[in-house]
Design a protein that fits this description.
The protein has about 400 residues and is mainly alpha-helical. It has 17 helices and 4 strands. About 70% of the residues lie in helices and about 5% in strands. It starts with a helix and ends with a helix. Keywords: Membrane, Transmembrane, Transmembrane helix. This is ABC transporter permease.
């Protein structure tokens, strides 16, 4: 009889074209289109910032400095102004985003540079920029790294003859040789920043969309009462609905997950917070993929159990939605907490429902999940799912709840 109930639930979903479109195809298409557009927009924005020709004013610049400045290399349009010129309007333009930056060499800069032996405080080069403007922040960073560092090196060379004489040692002369990194792990850490949060929310959304209608909808339409009057055991009916919803939720999650993967060539920078990622380095072994699948299935078990239990207690779909919404908020908080933090740090954290599963997904995607962490996550989620299923079957035997008495 369990097979008949399960067959009925799956047939109801997969033979309804509108339900298939709204539950599987539309979310996947939406994810692909939205992520692709957002990823492309982020890449275009970063390219635009790099290619932007900055408008910069430099006050009281020494002639020697003007000779070392390469406007083309800096990608800046520089206007030099005298020390006596009023800069109030320039600062106002920086505030409004019309000018990117102003640099001011303090009065008597060269004299102080030349009399460095008699000074307690070195002369100052002050920058004025707007941190709320991307162009302004990037201009300041580029100017300091390229122009000011080069000018300082030249001053020290003139002062000591050879810059190497004032340097006791170099740190990372060849930075490329200093980078010792596992490309696979680095790429995994990039993708694990946002993806576990997305998976956790998508799994819940996929189960919530159909889950409330599976039980609360049937109670509202009166078909549940008819079903309960059949000779089939109520535990069997409850299990059929829970398993059926679990299968639908997993299919929905797989379709949505495939949409995320398909959008990654365009959305990788968005998923990693703007960092570069080598997608070719992401090579999961068969065992790691099985671990990911088990974590997601057991997480779906918790979601389905919670949604079904709340739907059983509700009289209508609307009432079920009222009950499920706070749970969805808790799921989102748990998912976001792993995004901004490092996820679970102690082994017992992986036993916390939802939070432990999302942390395990994060660790698995960054190739850091240990066997103990995996087992604690999977077993605790499975036990919680069994408890929820038991509560659902007990509720199915409550006439007052099931018949909306």
């Amino acid at each position: 009889m369990l097979r008949d109930i399960l067959k009925k639930e799956l047939k109801r979903v997969f033979t309804d074209r509108r339900l298939v479109f709204s539950a599987f195809i539309l979310p996947a298409l939406s994810i692909f289109i939205v992520y692709t557009i957002m990823g492309s927009m982020l890449s275009n924005m970063m390219d635009d910032i790099e290619e932007h020709t900055s408008t910069v004013y430099i006050q009281n610049a020494p002639v020697q400095f003007q000779k070392v400045v390469d406007e083309k290399k800096l990608n800046m349009s520089i206007t030099y102004i005298d020390m006596t010129e009023d800069t109030t309007s320039i600062k106002e333009q920086i505030k409004n985003g019309e000018v990117d930056m102003m640099v001011k060499f303090e009065d008597g800069f060269l004299d102080k540079v030349n009399n460095y032996k008699n000074l307690e405080i070195p002369p100052e080069v002050k920058t004025f920029y707007n941190p709320s403007e991307e162009y302004s922040r990037e201009s300041r960073k580029r100017f300091i790294e390229i122009a000011l560092n080069k000018y300082e090196t030249q001053i020290l060379t003139d002062r000591f003859g050879d810059i190497n004489n004032v340097v006791a040692f170099d740190v990372d002369r060849n930075s490329d040789e200093s980078i010792v990194v596992d490309e696979k792990k680095a790429s995994g850490q990039g993708i694990s920043m946002i993806l576990p949060m997305l998976i956790a929310i998508i799994l819940f959304s996929g189960a919530m969309g159909i889950g409330m209608d599976t039980i609360a909808g049937e109670k509202e339409r009166g078909t549940m009462a008819t079903l309960l009057l059949t000779p089939v055991k109520r535990e069997t009916i409850a299990l059929g609905k829970v398993i059926g919803l679990g299968i639908v939720a997993i299919v929905s999650a797989i379709v949505s997950f495939a949409a995320i993967i398909a959008s990654m060539p365009f959305s990788s920078k968005m998923l990693t917070g703007g960092a570069d990622m080598n997608l070719g380095a992401l090579q999961f072994s068969t065992f790691q993929l099985i671990q990911l699948l088990i974590i997601m299935i057991t997480l779906v078990g918790i979601y389905v159990g919670l949604i079904c239990l709340l739907s059983v207690r509700a009289r209508t779909v609307k009432e079920a939605g009222t009950y499920v919404t706070p749970v969805f908020m808790v799921v989102m908080i748990a998912a976001f907490s792993t995004m901004f933090g490092g996820g679970a740090t102690e082994l017992y954290h992986y036993a916390i429902p939802v939070y432990g599963s999302v942390s395990a997904l994060k660790a698995a995607l960054s190739f850091e999940l240990t066997m103990n962490q995996f087992l604690v996550t999977a077993i605790s989620s499975f036990v919680v799912s069994l408890i929820l299923v038991r509560l659902i079957t007990l509720t199915f035997n409550d006439e007052k709840v099931m018949l909306n008495a």
